[in-house]
Amino acid sequence: MRVGVIDVGSNSLRSLFGEILEDQKFKKAGGELLTTRLGEGLSFKKALSEEAMRRTLKGLIDLRERINNYGAEDIYAFATSAVRDAENGEEFLRRVFEETGIRVELLSGEEEALQNLLGVETGLGVSDNYLLLDIGGGSTEIAVKRGGEVFLKSFPIGALKLKERFKGNLEDMLFFLERFWFEEASLLRSLSCKALNFIGMGGTLSALVSFKEGASFYDIKVVHGKKIEAMWLYRTVRFISEISTEELKRRLVFEPDRAYILLEGSTILLSLMSFLFIPEILVSETNLLWGGLVKKWKVKGFVF
Fold this sequence. Notes:
Mean pLDDT: 94
Strand order of the largest sheet: 5-4-1-2-3-12
Shape: globular
Radius of gyration: 18 Å
Structural class: alpha/beta
CATH class of the largest domain: Alpha Beta
Strand content: 15-25%
CATH superfamily of the largest domain: Exopolyphosphatase. Domain 2
CATH architecture of the largest domain: 2-Layer Sandwich
Largest sheet: 6 strands, mixed
Number of domains: 2
Helix content: 40-55%
Number of strands: 12
Distance between the termini: 17 Å
Number of helices: 13
């Protein structure tokens, strides 16, 4: 059975399509990332802008056509932080269905975190005793699983939101994040002490690993299962804060649009690793999209 999944995120649209084999494993055929910045301006207004919605609608039409051309029999689409936070989020989802024919499920913060867990456990083979950190454009989700119990928390801190608020000022971002995490200190440290392994996901971490590995194009096999060390991250955050966005774009040949918010996403990651005393974090590329496959079609494994 050929299927497709679409993630309507705050900063980008992502798709994944392929075939579910007889053994219930999913074999990837392709996927795309389109930077549409649906959540642009939400830090100041409580509604999605017309321009951002039009960009996203156009992107969804493009993704739908590519998935349909592949011959997919079914598409599962979902939306996250930007649509959750916006006063006109439900109205936008109605427009999506009317103009594209795609029904989009709106995930709560907890549902988003649980779907991430499905992707990580199936893709990395972990089952317990870990903390999962997902940095998005509009929010950051933390999930901990230990002894079969799952603890979830969604924070309204995202890379795109920081970009709009602090305009790339690293010291101001670090000061703000330190105060923010301090207010959540009791909860965060109670969660982190339950974990033996630390796993991260999201476009920021994918870009950081690709940057670290010197990749000239995105390859899931290069990124998935690699580690980011806290000391390397500290040096890298300082470095990218000192160069221009155009220079960073030239260095991020695999995903130049990520340069717009890479500093912000990396600063969130650095602040959390510092606050929770995490020396290194394992990167999972089997994220929300892949978790959607497990949730929707009971997929039991992935073939990259």
